[in-house]
Amino acid sequence: MALIITDDCINCDVCEPECPNGAISQGEEIYVIDPGLCTECVGHFDEPQCQQVCPVDCIPLDPNRVESKEQLMEKYQLLTSAE
């Protein structure tokens, strides 16, 4: 699954620099995650780094974007092969 940032976001700016895929950016009101770039840090870390640093715990799994670890690894490989 990709992750999603909820309306509880306080725009503290700690998650954006932690994302190794550049999937997090400032939206119109709160930070947003591009599901096409989010691998839940698979391929980079054991845990999603944005979830680890979020002080208000507002970055859950997106139930509308279910992906297996294998699919996330494939996405990671596609993203990193373009570098």
Automatic annotation (TrEMBL):
Domain 4Fe-4S ferredoxin-type: 1-29, 31-64
NCBIfam families recorded: di_4Fe-4S_YfhL (NF033683)
Repeat listed as a keyword: yes
Name the UniProt record assigns to this protein: 4Fe-4S binding domain-containing protein
One protein family per Pfam: Fer4_7
Keywords on record: 4Fe-4S, Electron transport, Iron, Iron-sulfur, Metal-binding, Repeat, Transport
One GO cellular component, as annotated: cytoplasm
Cross-referenced InterPro entries: 4Fe4S_Fe-S-bd (IPR017896), 4Fe4S_Fe_S_CS (IPR017900), PSI_iron-sulfur_center (IPR050157), YfhL-like (IPR047927)
Superkingdom of source: Bacteria
GO molecular function, one term: 4 iron, 4 sulfur cluster binding
